[in-house]
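Protein entry
_____________
===
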Amino acid sequence: MKVLELKIPPIIIMALIGVIMWFVATLVPQLVLVIPGQVILAAIAGFTSIALILAGAIAFRLAGTTVNPMQPSNTSSIVTRGIYKISRNPMYAGFLLLLLSWALLLSNIVSFAGLPVFVWYMNRFQIIPEEQALIAKFGSEYIAYAKNVRRWL
């Protein structure tokens, strides 16, 4: 399955899973959940997701390194400041929260299955290959960072 590693931009994966979540929700409308405060919860998750994505992208820009997740070998430095003190992948965590927001709005139990699928795909085909490239480029510096900061949150 190496053919999928670093091949599909994470934002496309998020969008595809979002469409699949909507599609399965329409297939099984009888599995609707009643979620008190659903719109408020979805808004909180949505705004938090945007904050994480922007914080990650801005930190990369300020560090002068690439935000292109398809070519981690082009990274010029390991970003460890700001949001990267808390998460090694805040933009991916933001995408996950955006999908959570969508699942809350869809209010269908089957739609929530898209969340672990997104995490699995990102870990297997994006994050692990990125980490391997960063270890190859930065060695012990990246390994030390990875030991101290969680992959997601």
